Amino acid sequence: MVYAVVEILTQPIMIVHGSGWLIFADSFIKFPPSISQPLVSLYCASFGLCVSLLASHFVFRFVAICSPNDIRKLEGWNLLKMYIFPVIFSVVWFLMGVIPSKPIDVKSEIPVNETYGENTFELGYVGMLYYHPSNSGETIIRWADFMACFTCCIIMQTCITVMIVCGWKTYQKMGRLGSSMSIKTKDLNNQLFRALIIQTLVPILTMFTPVGLLLILPMFSIGVGTLANAPSLNAGIYPALDATIVTFMIRDFRETVICRRRGPKVSFSAATSEALYSVSAENHASGNLS
């Protein structure tokens, strides 16, 4: 929600050129720069919050499946514990946009007028320029921009690692529970895990990887033109796509949506009580963290 609101307010546009990139607002708030630049930084921070919340979602699922007794520790106001690191990461991302990525004259020379008809010297923007020639022809390396880039990449890599580790641990736990499950219960858990895999791959391919490439490619003076705006589109449609994945990967949900006759209900024996609680806790997680 925060990401959507900030995106509507700023209508950000990104351009990658030479050894640098920048994002500027193309809405009614693009002037004056003292307002638009912090809001563009907030837009970047909201993206960091979005990807961090995805990792928190996987942590919640890990706790629900692998340690269901501990799920009670995250009930009520204690659920706010899951948001501590996402908030910290988003604040760090915001500071990277406000301080090392703030507008300066040398960054304003990145040509935006040719493509978007804007004068960057009059805009508030967030940008990084990794190196540029000096007046004497020497190459000047901007270490502060490198530091900001690596900080953002480390945050994304941390989130990816958390998602992979939690997903793998969840898979192992579900495998160990398989021997005590009925055939129908095991099939339900397999559906849940397949949905989990796709829910992991989609944000990695549509959000983490494109943004990481846009941060790194200018280091090698590789431009991508207007394709630099693809991550904004992907981040905007991902929440709906995430819900669609669950809807069509879980058979009962899918058959309800396409109005097919549902089969017999899945029954759980006393021996599968842990699996029942795990599935219920995961559904509760999706409702709270999505």
UniProtKB/TrEMBL annotation:
Transmembrane segments: 40-60, 80-99, 143-171, 192-216
InterPro entries for the chain: 7TM_GPCR_serpentine_rcpt_Str
Source organism (scientific name): Caenorhabditis brenneri
Domain of life (superkingdom): Eukaryota
A molecular function GO annotation: G protein-coupled olfactory receptor activity
One GO CC term on file: plasma membrane
Key words of the record: Membrane, Transmembrane, Transmembrane helix
Name of the protein in question: Uncharacterized protein
Keyword Lyase: no
